[in-house]
Amino acid sequence: MSRIAIDGTRGRSRHAHAGLLGALVLLASTVFVQSEAVAQIANTKHNLGSTNNVSGSPNKFSGTTEICVFCHTPHGADTAAAVPLWNRTLADPATYQTYDSLGTSTLDGKILPVGSVSIACLSCHDGVQAMNNVINAPGAGNAGDSTWIAGTWSGTAQTAGKINNTTVALLGQDLRNDHPIGIQYCGGGYNVGSGAGPCADTDFIVPSSAVIGPSKVFWVNTAGGTSGREKSDMILYNRTGTFNNAGGTITTAEPFVECASCHDPHISTHPTFLRTANTGSAVCLACHVK
Fold first, then answer.
1. How much is the average pLDDT of 22-38?
2. How confident is the model at residue 161 (pLDDT cuts 50, 70, 90)?
3. Is residue 235 within 8 Å of 225, Cβ to Cβ?
4. Which residues lie below 8 Å from residue 287, measured CB to CB, with a gap of 6+?
5. Total tally of structural domains belonging to the chain
6. 276 near 232, Cβ under 8 Å?
7. How many CA atoms lie within 13 A of 110 on its CB side?
8. Separation in Å, CA 203 to CA 71, 277, 284
9. Cα–Cα 20 to 30 A to 164, which of 33, 116, 247, 249?
10. Can you give the three-state secondary structure of 187-240, one letter per residue?
């Protein structure tokens, strides 16, 4: 006891040194994680700025070196978007035609109007507005100022900075020939209240779930992963609302399939930003029973 009292000053000094060291380690690890995240998207076609050196990248703007600004802003974001700090204006969901309008007899999941993370993706991929049509321009210092500094677009078949090419990247507003989005996973049966299931349509893999932060979340495990939710898993998105194809309202949030269920916009380890390799149709078979 006396040793601690006698050495108290030095002990506090040691503790302070340890705390400083811990803070520096935390700061270094945070910088590393941030740098890693930036490095991931910097080397993808979603880097629309002048630093894009990705071979075959179709869209590149000479006016800024910024990367994140084409989608995100720290201030003045669109609060209607269900994605972090979205820097683009979202379209009216009614402007899109969805898969359910075909009347396919095998479609047993309820479909909500285009929304959630999918409508954010479509704010570029429907080809309606220019990719530099943002809420808060880089360096503007004024949320709502979308006036860009001078610059030009380069790449394949550019028209006023809009996605305009012959690949599936240009989805348009007619989504009838695309995989359904805003559709209940496995025909319904799961929700954040009980999550007990089972799937209403047994032709689907049973989803995993966990409480992360304040919410219950759902995903479908892919091969080679762990039991926890990972970026390589098929992520499901909780939604409520009035659905298109049968009449009625979902009041307790259920897991839905959206664009980002299969695609991770920040990492292009696999073609077309797929969350996992599609060898042997692994992306399809992650959710659909053989």
1. 40
2. confident
3. no
4. 185, 186, 204, 205, 220, 234, 257
5. 2
6. yes
7. 20
8. 36, 22, 12
9. 116
10. HCCCCCCCCCCCCCCCCECCCEEEEECCEEEEEECCCCCCCCCCCCCEECEEEE
pLDDT (tens digit per residue) in 164-208: 776 788 999 999 999 999 999 999 999 999 878 899 999 999 999
Give dist(CA 221, CA 199) in Å, integer: 15
Residue with tokens 């992520």, as numbered in its chain:
235
> What's this model's pTM, rounded to 2 decimal places?
0.83
Q: Quick check: is 222 in a domain? A: yes
How far out from the chain centre does Cα 134 lie? 18
Computed on alpha carbons and rounded to an integer, the radius of gyration of the chain in Å comes to 23
CA distances from 124 to 170, 171, 212 (A): 9, 9, 30
Q: Which run of H or of E encompasses 249?
A: strand 249-257
Domain of residue 256 covers 182-290
The pLDDT tens digits of the residues spanning 39-71 come to 689 999 999 999 998 887 778 888 899 999 999
Residue 279: C-alpha distances to residues 60, 181, 270, 290 (Å): 30, 23, 10, 15
Kindly state the tokens that stand for 123: 């704010």
What residue type is assigned to position 51 of the chain? T
Taking only the tens place, the pLDDT of each residue in 270-288 is 999 999 999 999 999 999 9
Q: Which two structure tokens, joined as six digits, stand for 289?
A: 């029973």
Contact indicator for 120, 83 with CB cutoff of 8 Å? yes
- Classify residue 56 as exposed, middle or buried by CB count within 10 Å of its CB (0-12, 13-18, 19+): exposed
Q: How far apart are CA 15 and CA 229, in angstroms?
A: 36
Report yes or no on 263 lying in a domain. Answer: yes
90 Cβ contact partners less than 8 Å away, ≥ 6 residues apart: 78, 80, 81, 119, 120, 123
Amino acid at 288: H
* Contact yes or no for 71/89 (Cβ under 8 A): no
**How far apart are the C-alpha atoms of 149 and 154, rounded to whole Å?**
16
Residue 290 lies in a domain: yes
Q: Is residue 168 part of a domain?
A: no
What tokens were used for 215?
């919410």
Sequence length of the chain is 290
